[in-house]
Write a structure and sequence with these properties.
Layout: H1 2-10, H2 15-18, H3 21-47, H4 64-70, H5 76-109, H6 114-143, H7 151-162
Helix pairs in contact: 1-5, 3-5, 6-7
Length: 179
């Protein structure tokens, strides 16, 4: 979506050629393939863990950190490898989003009229807010120290990063100028 906004704002006349159906299919295929590979590796690792503390979780979602708490094995190297792989994928996506938005902000700041800048920013800010929410809550969920972990906090944070970002970003709020 950040690439879509970047092309729409920075190169509007080339939008049809840069984001044709072939480019969209390639981007979707890359997203699905990396997501599937990541999920497959985590699932295979999770199912290979012996559970010695039962199989009931006090959570709304079946999350990997919660399953690891039930495990009696110490497979730190496998988890570290999966964490590094996931972080590389996440950092690549984050870098792509940051570079796209840097181009967008650079192009928008060159727009001479305030109304034009406002319109351009208003198309990007909801997406940027959702991405920021996703990244900040995900980082908090997976990088917080175990000493501040509680089931209710884990539940709230997991809902924030897994339910709220996929929700529609355009909820019909009126714009700043009342339209």
């Amino acid at each position: 979506m950040s690439y879509d906004h970047s092309v729409a704002i920075c190169k509007p006349l080339h939008y049809g050629t840069l984001l044709g159906s072939r480019a969209c299919v390639h981007m979707v295929a890359a997203a699905w393939a990396t997501g599937f590979l990541n999920a497959l590796l985590h699932t295979a690792n999770t199912f290979s863990l012996p559970l010695c503390k039962g199989n009931a979780l006090d959570q709304f979602f079946c999350e990997i950190p919660q399953i690891l708490k039930l495990s009696c094995s110490h497979s730190y190297l496998r988890e570290l490898g999966l964490l590094v792989f996931s972080l590389l994928i996440g950092f690549g996506c984050f870098l792509f989003i940051v570079l796209s938005y840097a181009q967008i902000f650079r192009a928008v700041l060159r727009i001479p009229s305030d109304q034009g800048r406002h319109k351009a920013f208003s198309t990007c800010l909801p997406h940027l807010a959702v991405v920021s929410l996703l990244i900040s809550t995900s980082m908090f969920a997976y990088l917080k120290p175990p000493s501040i972990s509680s089931p209710s906090l884990d539940l709230v944070v997991s809902v924030l990063y897994s339910v709220v970002p996929p929700a529609p970003t355009d909820i019909g709020l009126p714009s700043m100028d009342g339209h």
